[in-house]
Write a structure and sequence with these properties.
The complex is a heterodimer. Chain A is of the alpha+beta class. Chain A has 2 helices and 4 strands; from the N terminus they run E-H-E-H-E-E. Chain A has helices at 13-23, 43-54; strands at 2-5, 33-37, 57-62, 65-69. The longest helix of chain A is centred in the last third of the chain and has 12 residues, at 43-54. Chain B folds into 2 domains: 16-230, Type I PLP-dependent aspartate aminotransferase-like (Major domain) (Aspartate Aminotransferase, domain 2), CATH 3.40.640.10; 237-352, Aspartate Aminotransferase, domain 1, CATH 3.90.1150.10. Chain B has a 7-stranded mixed sheet, with helices on one face. In chain B, 46% of the residues are buried. Classes of the chains: A alpha+beta, B alpha/beta.
């Protein structure tokens, strides 16, 4: 499990940093997950759209915490 | 370059024919049309002619139309004025409605938001005869047309401010249009009340007037002239606009990529909203503007309140990297390709710097 702290970052930075982290983590495979922390209001709608476009599964844990599952 | 058409933003310059009439009407339209002096009578007649012309293009009865100086008042008159006193009655509205509609719904005693799909379409509720449905004929951001509303049993308010030529449901109670949507002057809206008997004025009032006064007669006269010109122009360019729309869609998908196109293919062809993954919209709009191409955006970083477009979020579309393009009259395929080529360079550059 990898943590990604994007608190204080505004869109599109959380999604950009998430994509960079996946790109830089060659062994990001099942059952590995990323826990993203973000307080930007656009993060959850954008994570869902990003999930539809890239095929990664995403979950909202609470208002500030999101989980991204490896493919 | 974009300057030929006033750019790709939602605003467009006043139609030249309307501009000429507007200047003349300011000279002639100074009288109070409600008085009985000769200049007042002449102006009242001119306003009636303008109303009849506009009604003809909107395909509604001229008697149901009212000129309105303030657009947002039209939402209050059209929605709140038709709310039934029955305590159990509900106001239905899609989550992609204009923020003015959402503000009224949030202040309503019983409102129900209708969720939309990826194309911005929704399943029309059946409702009861005391219920009210507020729906846009065309979505102002994406150009998505309203689905069939004929199943709804109650009253219907139609927000037609985005696109004057969108088809209206066979039956509706009230509707609102905006002059600038047909390249007419800004600062004038048109309100239609079809069901007078179920309407109650939501504003403080002492008379039986449906709308408060306070519109500029010169704007109304110029607006009718602009509408005439807009309809003639649209009839000759509807099919070429569709070709430009398809050209834009294939370019951004094939030549740029990682793009989420929010506008459905079945919507109004002169509206296009799309979002580029991993791109900051503020930087994109700024860079494009410096290259001479003016674009709108619904992304949070470009809005005054730093909230992303509620329309994109409600549809489940990407809210960052968003661009809205309006295909105005006079735009050629070369103009469009010039803008798209610049867009490709800017998007690739912004993505390479991340």
């Amino acid at each position: 499990m990898i943590d990604l702290n994007c608190m204080g970052e505004r869109c599109p930075l959380p999604i950009i940093h998430l994509a960079q982290l996946i790109r830089d983590t060659p062994n990001f495979a099942k059952p590995c997950t990323i826990t993203l922390l973000s307080d930007d209001t656009a993060t959850w709608p954008d994570l869902q759209a990003w999930s539809r476009m890239t095929g990664y599964e995403v979950h909202k844990i609470d208002e500030l915490t999101f989980e991204i599952l490896a493919k | 370059m974009g300057s030929v058409t006033g750019g790709f933003t939602s605003e467009s310059p006043l139609h030249p024919a309307a501009r000429e009439i507007l200047i003349e009407a300011i000279d002639r339209g100074w009288a109070d049309p409600s008085k009985i002096h000769q200049p007042s009578r002449e102006l009242a007649l001119l306003l009636e002619e303008s109303k009849t012309l506009i009604a003809g293009h909107l395909k509604v009865e001229a008697g149901s139309l009212h000129f309105l100086g303030e657009r947002n008042l039209g939402y209050l008159l059209g929605i709140s004025g038709l709310r039934s006193p029955a305590t159990e009655s509900t106001l239905f509205y899609p989550t992609t409605s204009r923020s003015e509609v959402i503000a009224i719904a949030e202040a309503d005693r019983l409102a129900s938001a209708i969720s939309v799909d990826l194309d911005g379409s929704f399943i029309c509720p059946v409702g009861g005869e005391d219920d009210l449905l507020a729906a846009a004929a065309t979505n102002v951001e994406t150009g998505a047309y309203s689905p069939d509303l004929s199943n709804f049993q109650g009253r219907i308010f139609i927000d037609a401010t985005a696109d004057p030529l969108a088809s209206l449901p066979a039956r509706f109670s009230s509707a609102l249009w905006e002059s600038s949507s047909w390249s007419g002057p800004q600062g004038l809206s048109i309100f239609s009340l079809q069901e007078r008997q179920s309407w109650r004025n939501p504003l403080p009032h002492l008379d039986h007037e449906i709308v408060p006064g306070g519109f500029n007669p010169a704007l109304a006269i110029a607006s009718a002239v602009a509408f005439d010109a807009y309809v003639k122009d649209w009839n000759s360019r509807a099919s070429s606009t569709l070709i430009l729309n398809e050209c834009l869609r294939s370019f951004i998908s094939d030549e740029i990529g990682d793009v989420d196109i929010a506008s459905p293919k079945t919507g109004a062809p002169h509206f296009l909203s799309f979002s580029f993954l991993y791109v900051d919209a503020q930087q994109l709009v700024d860079r494009m503007s410096r290259l001479g191409f003016d674009l709108d955006s619904g992304s949070a970083c470009t809005s005054a309140n730093l909230e992303p477009s509620h329309v994109l979020a409600a549809m489940g579309r990407l809210t960052h990297g968003n661009v809205r393009v309006r295909l105005h009259s006079g735009l050629t395929k070369n103009d469009l390709l010039e803008m798209l080529t610049a867009l490709k360079i800017v998007v690739e550059d912004l993505r390479s710097n991340r």
